[in-house]
Specification:
The protein has 154 residues and is mainly alpha-helical. Helices cover 67% and strands 0% of the residues.
Length: 154
C-alpha cells in the first residue's frame, strides 16, 4: 500500500478547488448577463416570442416584467393577429386610447371564443346545455350579431 501524506492530500484538494473556481470564472466571463444587453436587442428578442412565452418571461424576474409590460411594440403584432377575428373590438379599443398590450388583454379570450363560433364549431348544438362552459365569454350584442349572421349564412 502506498502511503500518502496529509500534506499531499491537502494539496490535491486545494488544486481541485482552485480548478473549480477557475472554471467558474471562465464560465462567467463567457456568459453575458441579459440585463447588460442594449434595450433594442432585448426588445428584439422579446418580440420573437409568442404570447404564452412572453407571459412566462414576464414572471422570470422584475426587470423582464418591467420591460415586457412597458414595451408596447412587443404586443402590437400579437394584437394585429387577433384583429382578423375581432377587428371592430380592437379598432374601438385603440381609438379609445388603450395600449396594444391592454387591447390584447381585453380581446384575447374573446377572439378565441369568437373564432370557434365563426368557424362553425358549435353550429350543430341542440341546446345550451350542450355547450361547454369554457367557450362562453361575455361579449357585446354586436359580437353576438356577427356570430348569428355567420350561422344564418351556413
Amino acid at each position: 500500500m502506498k502511503k500518502t501524506s496529509k500534506r499531499s492530500n491537502e494539496l490535491r484538494v486545494s488544486d481541485t478547488q482552485s480548478n473549480s473556481v477557475d472554471s467558474e470564472k471562465d464560465k462567467n466571463k463567457s456568459q453575458i448577463n441579459f440585463d447588460q444587453l442594449p434595450l433594442e436587442v432585448t426588445l428584439k428578442i422579446f418580440s420573437q416570442l409568442d404570447i404564452q412565452s412572453l407571459c412566462r418571461a414576464s414572471v422570470t424576474c422584475r426587470e423582464w416584467n418591467d420591460t415586457i409590460q412597458s414595451s408596447d411594440s412587443i404586443w402590437k403584432p400579437h394584437c394585429l393577429s387577433l384583429r382578423t377575428v375581432c377587428q371592430r373590438e380592437i379598432d374601438d379599443d385603440l381609438q379609445s386610447g388603450y395600449s396594444w398590450r391592454v387591447t390584447l388583454l381585453r380581446n384575447y379570450q374573446k377572439s378565441k371564443v369568437k373564432h370557434e363560433w365563426l368557424s362553425g364549431r358549435y353550429s350543430n348544438i341542440s341546446s345550451s346545455f350542450s355547450l361547454p362552459e369554457t367557450i362562453m365569454y361575455p361579449m357585446d350584442a354586436d359580437t353576438w350579431g356577427e356570430i348569428l349572421e355567420a350561422e344564418l349564412e351556413r
